[in-house]
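Shipment paperwork, digital attachment
Item: protein structure file
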Amino acid sequence: MCTDCRQQDVSRRRFIGTGAAGALVPLLNAAAWADKGADDVVCRAAWGAKPPSGKFKHHKIERVTIHHSGVVLAQNRDAPAALRGAQAYHQDSGFPDIAYHFMIDRHGHIYKGRPRWARGDTFTEYPTKGHLLLMCEGNFEEQDISSQQLASLCDVAAWATRLFDIPIGRIRGHRDYAATACPGEDLYRRLENGSIKKRVRRRNESGGINLEQLCGKKGKRLVHRIEMGTD
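Attachment content:
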């Protein structure tokens, strides 16, 4: 069980706004999502990501695959530092960047990883070509996923299935492709029992979700609040 599962109302969900320096930068054409809900995605610069250290392999996204970090995240204020550590470890291991396309912390904040057109990486043997890799911070063999984190995971999966025309049945877990416990028992059972797919389907039927990058000063202020434990 996690030690930091406060049921707070995080300020990540907004409606589509106007573009300005340091404001929300659309990842999709905003006109196609008029009057729909939107989630903020923390820019790489805001969470302190380093530039890629090598070349990416291009791919076409055909499925959504869910991972966990495999490390207990007891305090959500440690989330950005954990991502910086993961990126450093992955690059030291020969990956050009952090392995995942999107990462989600315990309070539901979404962080941008490698470009979505770039094939992901893995320490296990499964073909990541065509997989959009979503990673939830935590070890769900030992702790439960928080409600905020689960909600954001379903939002990103809904966005991806709608944008890339992915059948709901292609939302799966890392362990479906490799000999691993990832994404952990508590998270995987929600895939197995169909609850995640049901929420994704319902989200898309209600109009879908947009993702907008939170960059510049706004992005850095959010990360500062996360690290101070106030968001």
